[in-house]
Design brief:
single chain; alpha+beta; Aminoglycoside 3'-phosphotransferase, Chain: A, domain 2; 3 domains; 7-stranded antiparallel beta sheet; 6-stranded mixed beta sheet; 17 strands; globular
Amino acid sequence: MEPGDRIIDLAGAEGWRDPIVSVALAQALSMFLSTQRWFAGKGGCIERVECDCHDIGFDQAGWLLARIRVWLAGQAEPQDYGLPLALAWDDEGDDQPRPPRSCTLARVRIGARIGLLYDACAREAFSQSILRMMAGNVRIPLGEGWLKFSSTRVFRQWAGEAPGSLSVKCLSLDSSNATLNIGGRMLLKVYRRLRAGINPELEMGRFLSDVAGFGNVAPLAGALEYADGNGTVIALALVQGFIDNQGDAWSYTQDYLRCFLGDCLQQPDALRAADGQVHGRYRRFAATLGRRTGELHRVLALHTGDPAFDPEPITVADLEAWSTRIRSELATTLDWLELARSGLPESMRVLATTVLDAREAVLARCVAPAISDPLPMKTRCHGDYHLGQVLLVGDDVIIIDFEGEPLRPLEERRAKHTPLRDVVGLLRSFNYAAHAALRQATTAGMGQWQLLAPHVRVWEEQARSAFLEGYAQAARGCASDPDDPWQVQALLELLTLEKASYELRYELDNRPDWLVIPLGGLCELLSLTMKEVPR
């Protein structure tokens, strides 16, 4: 049986919370979740699913909110998800678009009437209903708490006078969050994975837009949250102003490198002689990105009286805690790499062996930097900063997605840190972009890795230096920016180990053929001899 084939019989049931219906819905969800890219438990075995389903009947575009709890084999803690659901009845005719099969959970029957139960994000009326309720700041009793729809002071500016009538275009339903374009004016993001606590993306959006007035972010316009009887909040969705753009910086960089590598094959000698001059256009972009990043960190270092955002001095205890946690995470990651090594392709196994043979040297680098007075400040920061989190808008950039690293708990994502953590994220992203472009070029038969790699290394050096120059220009004198270059270098090295460890874990779980990038980054950081092999 495929997802969507199961039949849920509602005849005689007392609503969606009827025990028999709940069991049938849980069975359908178990099959459905295992096929979804956004489900974090794809690699595990689902042992049990529980579903608490509520009918949100605010207007004619009523929908169901399913709060799902999933237990996986071998894991003590369950995973929580939110899934809005809608019904499409067969007798509604052609006026109601049929949902994609990939969004369908089950068939539903009441007597002779048959319909489909599906992800409501695929239904235009769902998004329109969300906007109407945000515009009215509606509160709906739900279980022992409240479903809270809220709008910010810029909501009307972006939504207009009739937000519930705007057209809806699905941008992504299978990513970690569902994303929908509302009338070319706004973006609706529906969170799939639910976590109890203050959502950093909502919190950062409110601060940057309403308090700091930072203009290079997508402004937060509205939010949908659930608050239980104890006051614990769970973010379900948000709406931001849509800023017309030319795509994200990752795509721009890949397009740039594809053209550059094509030129390298056509005129390699000329490019080799002019390596320092050929990247003027990209250097200007990287410098702008560095300046905007520095400006972001400046506003996050402002004293506003909000304890969640006011900067605090970095202490020796902070440095010890950071280095201890990074060492522990890296040791666990290397254990996972050891378990996976035998199954890796030969070229990847060579790199894995190089890193694993240097295990003690790697872990020995996870030491707390000896930072002298005056100590820089720790502040809130982006937390998951890379080229994919940056949009190009003319000659400027917009920074998006302040959710933080999705593998980390909310309290870690909201914790104050040195903003150099964001700097490391961007520098590592340049390295990822270089490797991705080389992989694409060699796979497409454009040339050999050994021929093209030197040119891409020069590009990466140019991009890094321009970004760092722009960042230093904007961040100089900021309370969170260390004065001593040695302190900066020591922190960058420690944070690069943290980032490489995170990358290794992510690629082991999701893209083993990309392991070469974090492995290569570790080798370069530790000055290990790395055999140049085709990736």
